[in-house]
């Protein structure tokens, strides 16, 4: 496409409290490097990546911060979905926004803590990362770094020194797509259904956690009585093509996946995540905004009130069909995160393991035993990635009370081919309005009608995804207008006049 074409589209809202429109720019205005494995958003100024939430001298206090970073009042009481669990720990704190990392070495925990990660999702057992002899010390090392834990329940994790940091019990990984996982959770010899029943009975004071995948996140698969089985132990990855599965088979007992099985699984795990990776996978290829689609599909299938943590990869999950692993760059990962947040994600889960080695997809035991899978960790070994995600994570931490509050509106257009479409999350909190916006592809002009929320004038403080580059935008006539660059998130804090 050449030249410049633009058009106005109204966003389809889930309710009518607020309206917005986008003026889409042409594909020629889109930055072709975003989403391509290059980093168009690399910061050249060190000051731009400084975490504005951290004080740099004893004379500066949080209360002295103004504009976007003025203190946000923290609510009291327990957070709704986790209020019923006496030992849910941080999950029950309405200011806590879970930022997790999947299965990393314990000695990396302090570095992850410093970049704003607050939860270790650690589906480990004695045969894997640490071994039986060192398992207790490994767990204690994670705890000493100040991390919350999501782990299997066993004789190690129920020790008082460890269990006090457990906020949820890990049940199973990807039972919605892997028959091996459904029938042998964690290689423990028990089925997923048995695990969720046994764990709930063993400790009703903590929620259960399940990591789901395509069955929860992808609208185009799992629509009937068949459960497609990726069976990753045999290297079969394409869940969208039943012909690639030698034995898809009927769902257990002939049950319908969406109407019979998934509702039970959704309700059994109050804390859940989904991990359909799109950036460089050989089996799943799609635009970055599909990370937000993961969240919307999960909410459609489990219910809008279910907290959904969305996984994003920081290392190559494949070759995108090129034969060469394609690693996401800092701007790519930041876009994945905010696409998820704008769609209503209740947490972010970083997946650092590279599941491709030299163009050959690793399978099963190779993935678990190859230390390269765990050593990649670009978010703590790559300075640019570390700086970017530190800013992202601390910004999400700061916004925790807002992101956990009741949603005002979530707007989007369900047309993948549209350019300039903007995903928007709008929250009203403590008399202010907070907006997270990110385009799906091209540049766009965002127009938000705040008059329907009773705001005729005021100022919007806008920052980028790392919390930097703050701008002030006047709200005139109840309308907030701003130009958005392709796949560059912007967060607004609107203070009424």
Describe the structure.
By secondary structure, this protein is of the alpha/beta class. The chain has two domains: 8-47 and 408-496, Immunoglobulin-like (Sandwich); 68-403, Aldolase class I (TIM Barrel, Alpha-Beta Barrel). It has 14 helices and 21 strands. The strands form four sheets. Strands 4-5-6-7-8-9-10-11 form an eight-stranded parallel β-barrel, surrounded by four helices. A seven-stranded antiparallel beta sheet has the order 2-14-15-16-21-18-19, with helices on one face. Helix 9 packs parallel to helix 13. The longest helix is centred in the last third of the chain and has 16 residues, at 383-398. The two termini are 43 Å apart. Mean pLDDT is 74; it is low at 1-60, 223-254, 356-374 and 409-419.
Task: Please outline the helices and strands.
Elements: E1 8-10, E2 12-13, E3 19-24, E4 99-102, H1 109-114, E5 119-122, H2 135-144, E6 148-151, H3 160-163, E7 166-173, H4 179-183, H5 192-202, E8 208-212, H6 214-217, H7 257-268, E9 271-274, H8 290-302, E10 308-313, H9 330-342, E11 347-351, E12 356-357, E13 360-361, H10 364-369, H11 372-375, H12 378-381, H13 383-398, H14 400-403, E14 409-412, E15 422-429, E16 432-439, E17 444-449, E18 458-464, E19 471-475, E20 479-484, E21 490-496
Parallel strand pairs: 4-5, 4-11, 5-6, 6-7, 7-8, 8-9, 9-10, 10-11
Antiparallel strand pairs: 1-3, 2-14, 3-17, 12-13, 14-15, 15-16, 16-21, 17-20, 18-19, 18-21
Helix pairs in contact: 8-9, 9-13
